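Handout, page 2. Input:
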Amino acid sequence: MAAISTIYYSLLKKNDKIVLSAESYGTTLQLGEKLRGFGVEVKISWPDTEDIIESIDKRTKLVLIETITNPTLRVFDVPEILKVCKENDALLIVDNTFATPYLYKPFKDGVEAVIHSLTKYLSGHNDVIGGAVISRKERILELWDWRRMLGTILPPFEAFLIIRGLKTFELRMEKHCKNAQAIAEYLEDHPKIKEVIYPGLPTSKYYRLASRLFKNRFGGVVSFRIRGGEREAKKLMNSLKIIKPAPSLGGAESLLTYPVISAALTIPKDIREKLGITEDLLRFSAGLEDLEDLIQDIDNALNNI
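Output:
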């Protein structure tokens, strides 16, 4: 949020228009809504490439999207959105936390800036909170000044831990992606699972787009709908032995999260339900454990329902 707030305050002024996806991190949306009080026009678009494009016009100053949304794992066609942004002199900012630079590098396609939650895959050990903005030199110098004024400064020890984590980033991401792909395929065939959401499955509507953007790696997060509702979801989480029921993602440990009471809690209930963030939805972050152990842990927990 330090990275996102610095972007907001450095780029936007009264009468500017910002376009946000309805399925963004809840606090990204909350802070975006607060910008109305400063005279900024805020357009909340449905989280779909076509709807984002339709929301962009000549008044648009800034468009902020997540490459892969959380928790329903929609994939945006960043190059197509960028094309329309350039036609309208709008700046495109991409939160690339879920995809990471291992899957996709939006800056190479020409976006204005890329945001990462360093808390997740880049540090990789569930022990750091931080954010990063990557942009061209002129923009970074301006952001640096705003960072100083806003106090959004990463402490030195946290910076050290993130640099340490980056040394194993590529190796970790390969394992995250392989574990997630295998678990998505396992869950797809399980009778107690209603739906599996993962762009690496050929049944996903985003499979072809994700294959093109991500070069056949699909990330370490799998969402799925369990048959039942809140009771069954919580029973599953409480039955796990290896996988930890906890928020966050991208660390060495596998985590299972209940989105309706975590990252999506601040999204109004009616919007959550339209987005598909319902009481039967769970989000799994594949860690670095042995794949057979993870599948056995999930299987045992499902058998308890």
